[in-house]
Amino acid sequence: MAHFQKKSAKTKQDVPTSAMPDVVFMLLIFFMVTTVLREVELKVQVNYSEAENIEKIEQKRLVSYVYIGPERIGPGRAGETKVQIDDAIVDDIQAIRTIMYDKLLEQPRLIVSLRIDKDSDFGLITDVTQELRHAGTLRINYSTKREI
Amino acid sequence: MLLKKRKRTEPEIPGSSLADIAFLLLIFFLVTTTINVDTGIGLTLPPIPDESIEPPPIKERNLLKILVSAQGLVLLDDQPSSITEVKEKVKTFIKNPDSDPNLSESPDKAIVSIKTDRRTPYNVYINMLDEVIGAYNELRDEASMASYGVPFKSLDETSEEYERIAKDLYPKKISIAEPDEG
Fold first, then answer.
1. Among positive and negative, which fits the CA dihedral A18, A19, A25, A28?
2. Touching check for A145 and chain B: CB below 8 Å?
């Protein structure tokens, strides 16, 4: 019986790992730059609608967000449609006027970004836009995703 | 002269754990990242009308009334139409290539008026708005290509060419009608 000697390569089979930290750092820096830490805790649920002809808001400093959608009650459950500005739910629609007016005084070139759930009814949205008109914040933006 | 004896061992920072630290940070940022959607349809709301000032008269032919009903149906000047037709119809209304006496006199006089019901689904409204904005974008693109040979988007926003198309030729006159009470 002849023995077969296993052929083994003489070259090293290690994957060179010295460049790994560089690669990882590159990814790290990418994510650090693109990350926006969540500035508000969403109390309403917003599924964006989609559109094709959209524009990007370049100056983020000018933007103030208004969220409209069904309230989050528990996991997987949604309540009535509510309006949220900053961190709180605004129950009194009339109060939006003063809130937005104060914001407008701070930032005269304010853009109001309306982040509205796609299944909302238009009645509440009309009320909110009417309040915005009274407040004088006329530049608005209906937030939508890009349609693919 | 005395020469100082130099130690030949080079000081080194241990670098083997660097990758671990970087991975940890990477995972943290991966988890916390939310890629933001800061895109949308920009509009300017009309100011609250002054009671004492009469609204300026608008010729009927220059006004295209779009109504989105509670059932999500789109009516263009009382004619029911599907969402996909809106863009073409708005384009012919604004441009009026055959000088139809029922359509707008000239593109800069055309006004698109949008009216909604309290029970209009938001989704349909956005789709309709998307089509109207799309119609304007296409017309502006056409004008830009014909005059300057470049698409409208590549024009600088402060340039004279941009102003001419956006303000004089095809101003985006989209009016949000006062909502019905009740």
1. negative
2. yes
Dihedral sign of CA atoms A101, A104, A110, A113 in order: negative
Domain spans of chain B, in order of start:
60-176
Residues 6+ apart with CB under 8 A from B179: A126, A130, B115, B116, B118
Using CB atoms within 10 Å of the CB of residue B4, give its burial: 0 to 12 exposed, 13 to 18 middle, 19+ buried.
exposed
Give the domain range for residue A101: 49-146
Count of CB atoms situated within 10 Å of the CB of B71? 10
Nearest to B26 by CA among A20, A35, A18, A25: A25
Helix or strand holding residue B32 (H, E):
helix B18-32
ipTM metric: 0.71
- CB contacts of A147 in chain B (<8 Å) are 130
Nearest chain B residue (CA) to A17: B19
Task: Give the tens place of pLDDT for each residue, B99-148.
Answer: 777 777 777 888 888 888 888 888 888 888 888 888 888 888 888 888 88
User: In chain B, what residues touch A138 (CB-CB under 8 Å)?
Assistant: 44-47
CA distance A37 to A28: 15
- Alpha-carbon dihedral A122, A124, A128, A130, rounded to 10 degrees: 70
| A91 belongs to a structural domain | yes
Rounding to the nearest 10 degrees, give the CA dihedral for residues B88, B91, B97, B98: 60
The predicted-structure confidence for B6-30, as pLDDT tens digits, reads as follows 667 777 777 778 778 888 888 887 7
Give the C-alpha separation, B182 to B118, whole Å: 8
**Structure-token pair, residue A34:** 């693109």
CA distances from B102 to B32, B76, B80, B94, B179 (A): 56, 13, 17, 11, 25
d(CA B176, CA A76): 35
Q: Residue A71 domain-assigned?
A: yes
